[in-house]
């Protein structure tokens, strides 16, 4: 008997493609996958590589993204998450237990500071912050309960560049799990796993997505065992990415090399122009020979990134006036998009830090962070220089 319309509208055919395949990765906007074999379904529930059963466990579009980024980073496998903070908290909570101790750089992303203090309040996780200037800081901070060393390749917002090979070696010598947030560098400028990192993470929201239209993150694991543990934790905690965000990210990543080349070229020029401007007291860009980490950056990075920070001579008022004066440049909390964005950290992203903590992270009251976009350099500078005057 023919099925009724009410049934036929529900069960739609899935086309098979006999002689061709799509050039782009299809969007599998499916939460759920049907099986012919009950044993295969049971198996798929237990591991990340036995077929797709439920999109919190794994999804073909997401898997394409995970394999793409794992390969770029030189890792064994990756787990994509609902946000960069999903990746940060997965990296922390997947390893740490109550009472454990973490050694972390003192100029971390603001949200990562907040996550570490949450873990301190709720789970007695202790944190020691180190300047990230001398690898001996690691051994000096180690305690019997130290489990993890947490670093950022290029640290927000004054673009400190840690000597990753030396710090990761020090972390390994102390038997620590090493985690690197590689958001600012992207795998095109640095692959921390090649320098010995156990886990690398990204806020996809920034350069990997690149178009200010995705909120997502990703964890890349150096080895398969850590990956399986990380997959289990992230899946159980529910921090998995949505397939549509994976699909947008795959599209964004196709132009990552072109975008990064333009971000870096524009940022380098803007840094030079700012350094010569009388309203600017100091420019923080690892590509400038005056930057304290310039020599380290030349060794660790293949280019110097798209973020330039600068301190205005006029302090807090001048910082505020600059962010009111920009027109083409967007006043925004995020970074890494194709459009140039400006932020005044002291009054926004780093407002949870008191004056002393601000100073120790190298942030002045008049510091502006510019995420330099891929527009024409003359238009970017025209807007920045009119906002400076
Ligand atoms: C933005 C950012 C994060 C957090 O990512 P979300 O996608 O906003 O959750 C983590 N680390 C760094 C370095 C970032 O810039």
The amount of beta strand, in percent, is: 15-25%
Gyration radius from CA atoms, angstroms: 22 Å
Major beta sheet summary: 7 strands, mixed
Tally the structural domains: 2
Gap from first CA to last CA: 79 Å
Structural class: alpha/beta
Name given to the CATH architecture of the largest domain = 3-Layer(aba) Sandwich
Q: Could you list the spans in which at least 5 consecutive residues all have pLDDT below 50?
A: none
Report the count of strand segments.
14
**Which cofactor or ligand species appear?**
pyridoxal-5'-phosphate
Fourth CATH level, the homologous superfamily of the largest domain: Type I PLP-dependent aspartate aminotransferase-like (Major domain)
Number of helical stretches of at least 4 residues: 15
Mean pLDDT: 95
Strands across the major sheet, in which order?
A: 1-9-8-7-4-2-3
Topology (elements, then pairings):
Elements: H1 5-8, H2 38-44, H3 60-73, E1 77-81, H4 84-93, E2 101-105, H5 110-123, E3 126-130, H6 136-141, E4 146-152, E5 154-155, E6 160-161, H7 164-173, E7 177-181, H8 186-189, E8 199-203, E9 217-221, H9 224-237, H10 243-253, H11 256-275, E10 280-284, H12 294-300, E11 307-312, H13 315-325, E12 330-331, E13 341-343, H14 355-360, E14 367-371, H15 377-388
Parallel strand pairs: 2-3, 2-4, 4-7, 7-8, 12-13
Antiparallel strand pairs: 1-9, 5-6, 8-9, 10-11, 11-14, 13-14
Helix pairs in contact: 3-10, 4-5, 4-9, 13-15
Bound molecules: pyridoxal-5'-phosphate.
